[in-house]
Amino acid sequence: MANSKVSAIFFLILYAVLLYFVFTMNNMVAMYLMAIGMFLEACEGVYCNFFKH
In 3D, which of 49, 45, 41, 42 has the Cα closest to residue 14? Predict the structure, then answer.
């Protein structure tokens, strides 16, 4: 849920790093990054829906 160019670029880089860890078989680090990314996207969605005018 990228509502700005900055957040879109941030999540693109985050998920590129996530893919790197998946391909290098660092699965626990990849799971942590996936959880952090999903949580940050959810926080951005809540912020944009409830607090941004």
Answer: 41
